[in-house]
């Protein structure tokens, strides 16, 4: 048999293995594709060892060594696949992204640095947790502690108005008491109730 036929078969096996690795549909399919690639290499080693008539048969010895290593690799790979299936209930490589790095860069929409904007790259102020609370306390305490020049006059005017209003309320109460007594006695009041307007001092 000519050496071309085994070489063509090994090339086909290697191509199928490369396609299976690049497709990445399933973890088990990826392992099978890797094994196909190794078997294509083993076929080439045996064929060229026979064709070259090596006295030491180095190609066949290396083929046996690769087969042993591939068997150990498949056993470890299947153990990893079973562990993934027990934890995630899937063996799809597209869904197993727990250890993947988050996308970063100008094209992903997320800035590389937390203090820069993605469009211009200008630095933006980073909020401090205690700054907003201290700002609120200072803004709330400012009206209480600050006293303007007109605060004394305003307070005096309010006290005058309250004093006059108290006197007015006392007069109304007395008038109301008399009117109540007159109503209880059946006699209408002689004078109507008078309202007194008190203008507050400026």
UniProtKB/TrEMBL annotation:
Q: Where is the composition biased (Gly residues)?
A: 160-169
Sequence intervals crossing the membrane: 6-22, 29-52, 64-85
Q: Where located?
A: Cell membrane; Membrane
Sorted alphabetically, the keyword list is: Cell membrane, Membrane, NAD, Quinone, Translocase, Transmembrane, Transmembrane helix, Transport
Q: Where is the composition biased (Low complexity)?
A: 109-142
GO terms for biological process?
Answer: ATP synthesis coupled electron transport
**Source domain of life:** Bacteria
Q: Where is the composition biased (Basic and acidic residues)?
A: 191-202
Task: Indicate where this protein is primarily found.
Answer: membrane
Q: Which reaction does it catalyse?
A: a quinone + NADH + 5 H(+)(in) = a quinol + NAD(+) + 4 H(+)(out)
EC number per UniProt = 7.1.1.-
Q: Which InterPro entries match?
A: NADH_UbQ_OxRdtase_chain4L/K, NUOK/Mnh_C1-like
What do we know about how this protein assembles, alone or with others? NDH-1 is composed of 14 different subunits. Subunits NuoA, H, J, K, L, M, N constitute the membrane sector of the complex.
Protein role: NDH-1 shuttles electrons from NADH, via FMN and iron-sulfur (Fe-S) centers, to quinones in the respiratory chain. The immediate electron acceptor for the enzyme in this species is believed to be a menaquinone. Couples the redox reaction to proton translocation (for every two electrons transferred, four hydrogen ions are translocated across the cytoplasmic membrane), and thus conserves the redox energy in a proton gradient.
Similarity-based family? Belongs to the complex I subunit 4L family.
The protein here is known as: NADH-quinone oxidoreductase subunit K
Q: Which species expresses this protein natively?
A: Planobispora takensis
